[in-house]
Design goal:
The complex is a heterodimer of chains A (277) and B (235). Chain A is an all-alpha fold and 277 residues long. Chain A has 10 helices and 2 strands, in the order H-H-H-H-H-H-H-H-E-E-H-H. In chain A, helix 5 runs antiparallel to helix 6 and helix 7 runs antiparallel to helix 8. Chain B has 235 residues and is mainly α. Chain B has a single domain, classed as Ferritin (Up-down Bundle), CATH 1.20.1260. In chain B, strands 1-2 form a two-stranded parallel sheet. The chains are: A mainly alpha (277), B mainly alpha (235). At the A-B interface, helix 1, helix 6, helix 7, helix 8 and helix 9 of A face helix 2, helix 5, helix 6 and helix 7 of B.
């Protein structure tokens, strides 16, 4: 955490930032006083409070940030509760499999706490946890009694989670430490996704590589196609990746090399069947 | 050696004279950024160091600088996996070879993407130094792969906030999650279940992020070409 950089960044978008804090010196002193009293893990909270104070009465960035954090919180609630229930009910084999799900579950629960704190600190109100239906209205009726179905739904949640964070990245550009935190969650979701996919492959539940090839659902089927649509893209910033510069890059490899984001609307449509009306 | 100096202060003072293009104030901002930057301070002290900030290939400034920084890292990764597939380590299974070939293709795709996106602004091809890696040995190769992938993830995570144009941030986001998938796979190859262990993911469930100076100092032993990162944005 570099407060100096934080101020430089704010200064670029808000030339009056020091007036809001009186002066840079006062602001730095306030930060120093705050952070001196707090454990390192609590610093984002202090930051949030300072932002809230400084931007009191203005609209824009902070509101967008809170909205994105609440969007992320909904998805983390979904994942967190899914793994808690899975660990309690699903026939996950003891040993490596159970150990991996426990690690992932711990991270998702930690994300819920982190986002809840960040939203509160930024002056927002964390959304309430929705009531979930992990069978998605019966589409995955055996989600907590069948290990293959449990892992299939886990894979879809993780791959979709990665896409969801990525889909909001553009709105967080120049977002400083908030953006960094979102990125630090985003790559953890990708690590989870890769491992769940490897678990499905190792058990012959689906022909899944750790990365997404084309828009392949790895045998899970049309019910989850929306989570993979668009991943087949091979053109990045108007540059064709397939066989780029004469390299032997297949369309499959080109699609794997870049994960694609999903819009908020697309993600909410995907999770809707899992949320009780 | 003044006795009232902490070891860290001494190290800072000793390294300061080496960093001519970076003002003292700027350097102290770097130093404040993270403890890991101490590694840069230390490495700048060596006469033959690769991360000497005043000479070598200039990455440039602003978003171009960050894209060149990513291009440099992708060059390193692509060269590494190209060699891994060219001279497979003893005991590499068919399944491993298939997925390691995938990773090679992904890294080559990333490298060529940045080359084309940067066009005339692209840095030249870098010369790598893999003399410390024994490509015949599984542990040496996978240990290096793990270090490179985790480093790549933390590099993109850290660089995100330095990017000014949303389109570039989105591209970085598209790449970093693939690097994270690689990291998870390689980690599971070295030790199943270590895909997101506590050495990379903290108690808040957050992955690591590293700033360019720290990343380049970690990568420096593997890159023969001198890289000048002094014009990169730091905030």
């Amino acid at each position: 955490m570099n407060f100096n950089n934080v101020f430089n960044e704010i200064e670029k978008v808000d030339a009056d930032v020091y007036d809001r804090f009186d002066t840079r010196r006062t602001a730095m002193k306030n930060f120093a006083r705050f952070s001196g009293k707090l454990a390192l893990t609590a610093i984002p909270l202090a930051l949030g409070s300072m932002f809230k104070k400084a931007y009191a009465g203005t609209t824009g960035t902070l509101e967008t940030a809170v909205e994105i954090l609440n969007y992320a919180l909904t998805l983390e609630y979904l994942e967190s509760e899914f793994y808690i229930m899975g660990l309690a009910q699903a026939p996950i084999p003891a040993g490596a499999a159970r150990g991996a799900i426990e690690i992932i579950s711990k991270h998702e629960s930690a994300h819920v706490v982190f986002l809840t704190n960040a939203i509160k600190a930024a002056g927002g109100t964390p959304g309430a946890k929705p009531a979930f239906d992990f069978t998605a209205g019966g589409a995955f009726a055996n989600v907590f009694t069948s290990y293959p179905t449990f892992l299939a739904v886990a894979q879809v949640f993780e791959d979709t989670g990665v896409r969801a964070y990525k889909g909001r990245a553009a709105e967080l550009v120049k977002g400083g430490d908030l953006l960094t935190a979102a990125l630090n969650i985003h790559s953890v979701e990708a690590r989870h996704a890769a491992h769940i996919r490897s678990m499905r492959k190792a058990n012959n539940f689906g022909d899944a590589k750790p990365w997404i090839t084309g828009k392949d659902t790895t045998g899970i089927g049309s019910a989850v196609q929306a989570s993979y649509n668009g991943e087949e893209n091979t053109i990045q910033a108007n540059i064709q990746i397939t066989n780029i510069n004469g390299m032997a890059i297949t369309a499959n490899a080109a699609s794997e090399a870049f994960d694609e984001g999903l819009s908020k609307d697309a993600v909410l449509a995907i999770v809707k069947p899992f949320i009780k009306a | 050696m003044p006795t009232n100096n902490s070891p860290q202060q001494s190290q800072l003072a000793a390294s300061e004279g080496r960093i001519q293009s970076v003002s003292r104030r700027k350097f102290l901002i770097f130093a404040g950024a993270s403890a890991g930057v101490m590694a840069v301070a230390a490495s700048c002290n060596k006469d033959d160091d690769n991360s000497n900030m005043n000479s070598g290939v200039d990455l440039g400034k602003d978003d171009i600088g960050i894209l060149n920084y990513a291009y440099a890292l992708e060059q390193l990764e692509a060269a590494f996996y190209t060699q891994v597939i060219l001279t497979p380590f003893s005991g590499m299974t068919d399944g491993e070879k298939a997925l390691l070939s995938d990773i090679r293709d992904h890294e080559v795709a990333h490298r060529e993407f940045f080359k084309n996106a940067l066009a005339a602004n692209a840095i030249p091809g870098l010369e790598v130094d893999f003399s410390s890696i024994d490509f015949t040995k599984r542990d040496s190769v996978l240990g290096t792969a793990k270090a490179f992938e985790d480093l790549g993830v933390s590099a993109y995570n850290g660089a995100g906030k330095l990017i000014k144009l949303a389109d570039y941030l989105v591209i970085a986001g598209k790449i970093v999650s693939v690097e994270a998938r690689h990291a998870a796979y390689i980690r599971d190859l070295t030790s199943n279940g270590s895909f997101a262990d506590s050495t990379v993911v903290d108690a808040m469930g957050l992955d690591k992020s590293r700033m360019p100076m720290e990343v380049l100092s970690i990568a420096a032993p593997y890159i023969k070409t001198k890289i000048n990162a002094s014009n990169l944005p730091t905030s």
